[in-house]
Structures are given as C-alpha cells and as structure tokens.
Amino acid sequence: MNELRQLARKLLADKTVGVVIGYEEGQGAVTRPSFATSPEQAEKLVFDARCVQNLASYLSPRRSTVRSLGKPAVVVKACDAKALAGLIREAQVKREDVVVISVACGGVLADPRSGKALSEAMVADRCRDCDGAHTSLADHKVGQAKAPAFGSPKVDARLAELQAMTAPQRFAFFKSVFSECTRCNVCREVCPMCFCARCMADKSEPQWIESSPHLRGNFAWHMLRAMHLAGRCVGCNECERACPAGIPLSLITRKMQKVVSERFGYSPSDDPNVPAPTGAFRLDDAQEFIR
Amino acid sequence: MRKAFITQENLSVLSGDLERAGRKVVVPRPSATGRMEYGAAQSGSLTHLGGALPARSLKATFLPPTEALLRWKNAKDDVVLEPSEPKALPTVVLGARPCDAAALAILDKVMDWDYHDDPWFARRKATTIVSLACDGVDSSCFCTSVGLSPDTTKGSDVLLTAVDGGYLVEALSEKGEALLEENKTRFTAARGEAQAAERRKAATDKVRKNLAVDARTVKDWLGGNFEHPFFKLGSRCHACGACAAVCPTCHCFDIVDEPEGLEGGTRRRNWDTCQTSKFTLHGSGHNPRNDQHARLRQRVMHKFHIYSERFGETLCTGCGRCARACPGGMDLLEALREIDKLRRSSRPSAAPIVTPTNPPISGGAR
C-alpha cells in the first residue's frame, strides 16, 4: 500500500500525470474507484481483494469527465490490463498517453459487499484461471505477482451443462433470463470495450435493433452485443457484476471467448501488438463457411 | 380502521384464495436469474416474505419496463391508429416493502400533473397493496431521512407486522378494509400489538443510525447552489443508469415507434434514465447536460429540489438501492451528508432560488 501511495504521490508531484486512477475506501466495507489529482489525495489509495472494478473502463474516450483531469496513471490488475491493451490495440488510447501501474493481485471478491474474506468460495469467477502475472504493459510494478489458485472457473461447468441441452432447451433458458432484461444498457455502459460514441442499438433511422425490452428486442440486443464483443471482450465481467437484473452475461461472453479461441487461436492478450481476430486477416483463417 | 391477525400459513392460503378469485398476486420471490424480485406468486408460496430486499422496486408492476401505447396500421391512403388498452388486472401485492409502496403515492403526483397517465392509474386503481413492516435491510437504508420509516403506511392499503406466530394486520384504506372483509375467514382477532410496536421502533432506530440528515432540509441549499463545485461528482460514474433501473421513484420513459413489417407497428414507452448523454441530446447535436457532473447534479436536484418544489414531496424513499447497485461506488447517503454539511456551514442565502415555477407543459388546468 505504501509503495502504491509513494509512487502515486511522486507521479502527481512531478506532474508526470494529472490524475492517478486507483481505488479508495468507499462507504461501508467496500472500495471504489478513486481519482487522485494531488499528492495529498494519493494518501487515499488502497488495493486489496475488494478492488473489483475494471479501471480501464475510465480510459475510454467516452469518459469526458475523466479525460478533463489530465494525463492518467491507472492502477491495473492482470484482467484490467487486457482491457487497456484492447483500447490501445483499437486506437482509443495511445500507449504514451497513459502511465500503467500494475498491482499484484491474488484474486478479488465476487461480492465485496458481503464483507467476507477471499477464499475459494468467495473469489470472483474470472480469477480462477488468471495467471496473476504483472502485465508487460507495466510502467511500474507494485507488489510480488502471485498466481491465484482457486480451481477452474464455474462458468465453464455451467456452459458444459448448457451445451448438453437440446437447442430448444437452451433457447428456453435464455428466454427466461432475458425476460428479466429491462434494456437499461448498464452492461454496455460499464464495458471497457464498448466505447462507440454512438451505439448501433441507439440508432433510430433506420432502427437496427429494437430498443424495447420485449423478448424480440432483448434477444436482438444480447446477440448484437455478443457478436460485437467476440474476440474483443477481455472477460473482466463488469457487465455481469453491474447488471441490475442479475443476468448471467458471462455465459455469453465466455462462450464467445471459447469459440474465438478454437477458431482463431486467440485469447484476450495484454499485448496491444498481438492482433485480435476482428482486426486482422490471415490466409489460414478458417473460412469453410464461405461457399 | 380494523386490525386483525393472520398466521403465516393462512397468509399463503389467502394468496391462493385471491388467485382463485381472479386476482393477480405479486410477491417477492426469486426471479429467473435467481435474484429476489417482485413478481407473480408461484403456487401460492409466500416463503420469501420479509427476506432479502427485492433487487428492483415495485414500480414495474405499475410502470412496466415496456408498454404498448398504440398500434398503427398502414391503410391505402391513411394510417389507422388503435390505442392499446392498458393491462390492469385486479392485483394484490403481498409483502411490499413500505418504501416501495410509499414511492407509488409519491409518483401519483407527477402521473396526474400535466397529463393524467391512464395506464398508471388503471393499475393503481386495480391494485391493493399489502406491505410488510421492514426490519431495516442494511447500512444503505435511509427512509427515516426522507420523512418515512420502515413501517410507513404511505401508499399501502394494509400493513403487516411480523409478530410471534404470524402477522399483525392493520387496514389503512377502504381497499384494505375490503380485502379484510372479503377474506375474513382467514383472519382472527388482532394480537401481538405490543410486540409489533417494539419491533417497529427497533427497526426505525436502526435505520436512523445510517444517516443523521433530514433530506427535506437540503432543498433550499440545492436551489441556490446550482453551480457549486460540490457537483463535480461525475468521475467515477459510468453513466450506466443502474441507479435509475433499481429506483422506486425514477419514472422517466422514452417513447419509440417500432415498425412490425410493412403493414404497421407499435408505439411503446420504455424506461429511460437521465444519466445517459442521449437523454438530453438535441437533434441539433447540442447537449445541455454535456458531462456526467451535470447529469448527476440533475439526479440529485430532481429528487431533492425540483420535485419537492413542484409537488411538496421528496422524490426518494431512502431505499438505498442506488447505493447498493452502483458499479462505480456512488453513494447517495454520502452525497446527502456532504450537502447537509455545506448547508449548515453556508449563511442563509439571499440569492434567488432557482425554482421551476413554469406552468405545466400542456397549459391545462391541472
């Protein structure tokens, strides 16, 4: 903690950056995103298993209030680093415009409000297959990296169950969970990779996607989202964490990740120079669907 | 108004009775995603009464996330409009949180302001609300700061209080009296009143500790401090609107026309939120609320200044859902605490208060 605060204080004092985006104590037992703009404010910074948010989201060009604070330094976990790499890869952030502080993370809590300690039962699912290594994007590394050891992600077991169902059974399942969707767009707004100034789902002339939360509109939205994030989603799971309806969105994002991995040999990378399938063409890409 | 007692078992029986009598029964129960939500009772079971706070409020029962307003058909040289009849089934809500019931009474004001919202009032009229006095959920509850309490009767037709062996039942309105009368075989003479009073007081004391601010007193400070630097609140806000999605009093909607084939289509109204930039984006490209600071200020202003100026009510029931749901860690209790501090330290302002006294949009008599 002291190391992190010292570093932030230095970056702010020598005006290397205008803001350090990290975590601070929130109300009650939780932590929350923090925007330190002076060396004194760097004293607020904390990092522990309660720091669930993906702070790379705040670097998206849509965040005008954050951009107005000056050049950012951002505290990233291994998962957040992949989102930052995605923003750099897709030309939303210039590498030289951000200072990357990689923090050693041994996994974060699925539900920080629970007040429970980190354990096999309480860990966020995405941490289960994380290698915990410091990102190669790091300008500064804080803490000794360690791989969390929490078994395999539970979402995979659930996906296997869905895969074992018949198509009508699967459809019935998605119909039931999508019936809870009110199209509040929270999944989109918290997503670090949803940075479009104007989302296709908001266009009304012509209207490609119905904005009403009836089943037709909800299916259209969730399919559009799956397709637009395939090969781009980094699996930070902010969408599922934030969804006011509790829709298990990781079932979709994880499935797309697996499909992309199997067909294109690509997994979310924290190296912006590794091309993602949506932005690259290879002669040996599978294309048997073109007849 | 009459008081009675009902056992837990008989309350489940009553739920079945009501369904058989053709009423839709809405209770807190796990949703398709496993969260506690208000929804149609499943096989008359009321096992979740008084359990976890429903993740979203009761408003969807009266203002559905999407609702057809009219259908149009393209005729040869004309367009034929068919207004939609609002679906307003006779309904009983069993086990509403008092804060969620209070929200309905607060929203009645705006729903009957410059326009009488027929679908809203059709459902209000068709619904009897049986609330259950709340124990106070957690540290995000602050109903006592907006003039309510965990056992507030506002907006409810009947109030239940859990006591040994069942519930003390108090009718609060004609609808509530009628419900008790029509189902009198399920009720017995009132008992447990002392215990109920004790529990309700304990819950009120518990919630009071969460926020020592009377949110109604911040109204004038807000009106005189539109440009105050306090409102630079927006950095950690994602503009996602999760707060509005779970809020019992956020009621803004968007109206869209959705073509269905070439023959016609449906005009619908859907939930919307002032937290997105699109909400105030003009056709010209100008956006009067151009950053997240301005949008969050709007949320605070509308709830604690504008609505109370216009309708004499705070547009907040202190349910705390916004604080619990915010993925960025925004917390309305903290904001109110800060505003109250500023209010106390500021001299009484002689500056004119920015008060929305403009007449109703329609210029009608309401």
Query: What coarse outline of chain A follows from CA principal-axis ratios?
Result: globular
In DSSP terms, counting alpha (H) and pi (I) runs of 4 or more, how many helices of chain B?
Answer: 10
Proportion of helical residues of chain A:
25-40%
Count of individual domains of chain B? 2
Proportion in β-strands of chain A: 5-15%
Major β-sheet annotation of chain B = 8 strands, mixed
- Topology order of chain A in helix (H) and strand (E) letters: HEEEHEHEEHHHHHH
Largest sheet of chain A: 6 strands, mixed
Number of domains of chain A: 2
- End-to-end separation of chain B in angstroms reads 32 Å
Beta fraction of the residues of chain B? 15-25%
How would you describe the oligomerization state of the chains in this entry? heterodimer
Structural class of the secondary elements of chain A?
A: alpha/beta
Q: What gyration radius of chain B follows from the Cα positions, in whole Å?
A: 22 Å
Work out the helicity level of chain B: 25-40%
- Name the average pLDDT of chain A: 94
What's the mean pLDDT score of chain B? 92
Poorly predicted regions of chain B are: 355-366
> Helix count of chain A?
9
Class from helix and strand fractions of chain B = alpha+beta
Protein traits:
heterodimer, A: 291 residues, alpha/beta, 6-stranded mixed sheet, globular, B: 366 residues, alpha+beta, 8-stranded mixed sheet, 10 helices, 30% helix, 20% strand
Overview of the structural elements:
The complex is a heterodimer of chains A (291) and B (366). Chain A has 291 residues and is an alpha/beta fold. Chain A has helices spanning 2-13, 64-67, 78-89, 154-164, 167-178, 186-190, 215-229, 238-242, 250-264; strands spanning 19-25, 31-36, 45-46, 72-76, 99-103, 140-142. Chain A folds into 2 domains: 2-142, no CATH class; 154-279, no CATH class. Helices cover 31% and strands 10% of the residues of chain A. In chain A, strands 1, 2, 3, 4, 5 and 6 form a 6-stranded mixed β-sheet that branches. Chain B is α+β, with helices and mostly antiparallel strands. In chain B, the strands form 2 sheets. Chain B has an 8-stranded mixed β-sheet with strand order 3-2-6-7-8-9-1-10, sandwiched between helices. Chain B has a 4-stranded antiparallel β-sheet with strand order 5-4-12-11, with no helix packed on it. Chain B folds into 2 domains: 3-210, no CATH class; 216-345, no CATH class. The radius of gyration of chain B is 22 Å and the shape is globular. Chain B has helices spanning 8-20, 98-111, 118-126, 174-182, 193-208, 219-224, 242-246, 292-311, 321-325, 332-345; strands at 3-7, 24-30, 36-40, 66-74, 79-83, 91-96, 127-132, 158-163, 166-171, 188-189, 253-260, 264-271. The longest helix of chain B is centred in the last third of the chain and has 20 residues, at 292-311. The interface between A and B is large, with 49 and 49 residues.
